[in-house]
């Protein structure tokens, strides 16, 4: 498990490109047959990826870094499959996830195992975990069942559909809020006009991008913006003080996960375009 410590906006202003990438960008999440995890001290997020092939992959706690006997001893987790059909087994119960289906697993579940229906065409499980204080039921949500919200316009190059999976009016959790945004063809912008939300942080995971495609992810304080070049199946940590927006070389999809003081999806501080620098 890789550990990332929290940063502050004053220091971030001095970072060069390489340092920005070291602090905020998460690369190499998906390795065949492996579980990869990044523990961030920003709201104690754990972000990860699991690619089971011929053998299942077990979600295990890092005893040294987590101080737990099993991963969900003090945590909850959201899982979205971005690959071929897969199965998540939670304490003996199987949940079949097609591409873009999601699963919430609550505190106290002792064994979580990831499997692929076809080892030659494996599932790719994206994971987002936050601390939890009580148990909520394990629950699957197919993308067809997720609450959609249509936003933007082709005129502004940001026509998109937001699918909410784990939220106040959907799957219940202690603090994790999670969903997916799909940009329609011909649209490249997300979350512009932008915002911050000082009461919670966020992690973006970009995927469904062509091999040579990139997203220029915008971050930083609204008056001190920076950018990080993000490629397919990479994630980026967004502290509460930072904007989180981006423009791609083509349309793409991204998973967003939030954690912090509240779960109100609309709790955000809008930034006027005239104030961006």
TrEMBL record:
<dbReference type="InterPro" id="IPR021120">
    <property type="entry name" value="KduI/IolB_isomerase"/>
</dbReference>
<protein>
    <recommendedName>
        <fullName>4-deoxy-L-threo-5-hexosulose-uronate ketol-isomerase</fullName>
        <ecNumber>5.3.1.17</ecNumber>
    </recommendedName>
</protein>
<feature type="binding site">
    <location>
        <position position="202"/>
    </location>
    <ligand>
        <name>Zn(2+)</name>
    </ligand>
</feature>
<dbReference type="InterPro" id="IPR007045">
    <property type="entry name" value="KduI"/>
</dbReference>
<comment type="similarity">
    <text>Belongs to the KduI family.</text>
</comment>
<keyword id="KW-0479">Metal-binding</keyword>
<feature type="binding site">
    <location>
        <position position="197"/>
    </location>
    <ligand>
        <name>Zn(2+)</name>
    </ligand>
</feature>
<feature type="binding site">
    <location>
        <position position="244"/>
    </location>
    <ligand>
        <name>Zn(2+)</name>
    </ligand>
</feature>
<comment type="function">
    <text>Catalyzes the isomerization of 5-dehydro-4-deoxy-D-glucuronate to 3-deoxy-D-glycero-2,5-hexodiulosonate.</text>
</comment>
<dbReference type="InterPro" id="IPR027449">
    <property type="entry name" value="KduI_N"/>
</dbReference>
<keyword id="KW-0413">Isomerase</keyword>
<feature type="binding site">
    <location>
        <position position="195"/>
    </location>
    <ligand>
        <name>Zn(2+)</name>
    </ligand>
</feature>
<keyword id="KW-0862">Zinc</keyword>
<dbReference type="InterPro" id="IPR014710">
    <property type="entry name" value="RmlC-like_jellyroll"/>
</dbReference>
<dbReference type="InterPro" id="IPR011051">
    <property type="entry name" value="RmlC_Cupin_sf"/>
</dbReference>
<dbReference type="Pfam" id="PF04962">
    <property type="entry name" value="KduI"/>
</dbReference>
<comment type="pathway">
    <text>Glycan metabolism; pectin degradation; 2-dehydro-3-deoxy-D-gluconate from pectin: step 4/5.</text>
</comment>
<dbReference type="GO" id="GO:0008697">
    <property type="term" value="F:4-deoxy-L-threo-5-hexosulose-uronate ketol-isomerase activity"/>
</dbReference>
């Amino acid at each position: 498990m890789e550990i990332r410590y929290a940063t502050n906006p004053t220091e971030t202003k001095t970072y060069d490109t390489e340092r920005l990438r070291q602090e905020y960008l998460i690369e190499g999440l998906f390795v065949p047959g492996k579980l990869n995890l990044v523990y961030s001290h920003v709201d104690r997020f754990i972000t990860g990826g699991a690619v089971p092939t011929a053998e299942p992959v077990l979600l295990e706690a890092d005893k040294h870094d987590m101080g737990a006997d099993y991963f969900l001893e003090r945590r909850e987790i959201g899982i979205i499959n971005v690959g071929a059909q897969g199965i998540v087994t939670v304490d003996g119960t199987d949940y079949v996830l097609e591409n873009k289906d999601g699963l919430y697993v609550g505190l106290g579940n002792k064994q979580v195992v990831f499997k692929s229906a076809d080892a030659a065409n494996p599932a790719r499980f994206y994971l987002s975990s936050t601390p939890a204080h009580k148990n909520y039921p394990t629950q699957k949500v197919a993308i067809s069942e997720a609450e959609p919200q249509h936003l933007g316009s082709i005129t502004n190059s940001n026509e998109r559909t937001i699918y909410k999976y784990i939220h106040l009016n959907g799957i219940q959790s202690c603090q994790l809020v999670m969903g997916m945004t799909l940009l329609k063809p011909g649209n490249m912008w997300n979350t512009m006009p932008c915002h911050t939300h000082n009461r919670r942080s966020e992690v973006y995971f970009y995927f469904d991008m062509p091999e040579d495609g990139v997203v220029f992810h915008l971050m930083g304080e609204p008056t001190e913006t920076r950018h990080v070049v993000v490629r397919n199946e990479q994630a980026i940590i967004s502290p509460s003080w930072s904007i989180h927006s981006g423009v791609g070389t083509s349309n793409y999809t991204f998973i967003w996960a939030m954690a912090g003081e509240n779960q109100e999806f609309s709790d955000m501080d809008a930034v006027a375009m005239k104030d961006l620098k």
